[in-house]
Specification:
There is one protein chain. The protein has 14 helices and 20 strands. The two termini are 43 Å apart. Helix 4 links the parallel strand 13 and strand 14. It is 32% helix and 19% strand. With 434 residues, it is of the alpha/beta class. It is elongated.
Length: 434
Amino acid sequence: KPHSDVLIAFIQTQQLHVARADPFLEHRCGPDIDSPSITARNTGIFWPGFPISRTPEEKLKKGTTLKITLDKAYVECEENTVWMDSKNICKVVEMGSKIYVDGGLMSLQAKEKGADFLVTGVENGGSWGRKKGVNLPGAAVDMPASEKNIQDLNLGVEQGADMVSVFHPQGIRCPQSQKGSGRKGKNIKVIRKTENHGVWRFDEILEVSDGLMVAGGLGIEIPAEKVFLAQKMMVGQCIQAGEPVICGAQVLESSGSHQGEGSDVAHEVLDGADCIMLSGEPDMGDQPEAVRMQCLMAGEAEAIYHLQLFEELRRLAPTPHRSRCLGRCGAFFKYPNGAIIVLTTPGRYAHRVTRYSPAPLIAVTHNHQTALQAHLYRGIFPVLYKDPVQEAWAENLAQWTSGMNVGKDRGFFKKGEGVILLTGWHRAQASPTP
């Protein structure tokens, strides 16, 4: 079976339920669909007798020759022959073109090719192991959703995932992912990962997405001197569109708090990113302190003076909805308060307000999925209200009280400080604003 009953039981009891155990809903979960923007994604498996607890790897030296084959007989790779799970790599790779492995740490150059093999020279060596990512910059590739991708997506829907992240190929086509699992998965957030030619069609991709991820392979697929411009453009576009944006660059790769790596983390936050992915050392390295250091750097960067950013966003607010959000958040600068509390059902009002908010935003909702997905947006702290909700917002004081209690417990404000209360309800309506 693609997904055995044992695997499903493990996900249910160990991962998804643990992610939802916190009463403040500070964890969300979703499958990462490996539908990459490249033809050859995964390398084969070296198996020279290593214990199962270790990842077998082979050292590739600069100047040596390496043969890449599509023959599954070499899935367990040999010293100078490796297998890749591509079907058309030999068709799209031109003689003399580059092949990057493991996020660009290793590079190969194509010297000879046949119907089912490539002979390459190692330009930059390194540790070649199982499941290493492969990038083919400049290659005209097409990677539709595979059967396994769809199975993974359906599994996430069945287990109640909050979001799903998928690679977006060169265009905007991504079948079976945009609400592609039927009515049951229609409210799952679809986060598109962009790292190559999708940059040039970013507006089209953003239009069909619930959020964007700036993937870590961006520096391989486009010229290195253009990377910071592309990232700032994508983050800025997402802020204007009101969509969450995640930066997935290789931060703290060396596990140290060096100036350059500290600046990388800070500038992603200063640019306006909602989330920063763990990658490299913070994700799977030997130094767990790297995670704490990354958190400290992000927190320091968030303590910026928001007035200048607020004024810049004010000039970019063309719609009435955004203008109303700006007006409400503008009161914070005139009369400083500790936090903003918003009552919302689908979450859209809280998502808009947090773009302009200089303070923590406590979003009180009775929708469980809305509360979980709110963590995709920077500065929102969701509170799940489980008691019956009154139709008249002015009578629903219990929701306000619930948000106030959480704010006091979390130290967002203290006795004597003011709190701005907002609601997505109109006085003459019994339904939330869009």
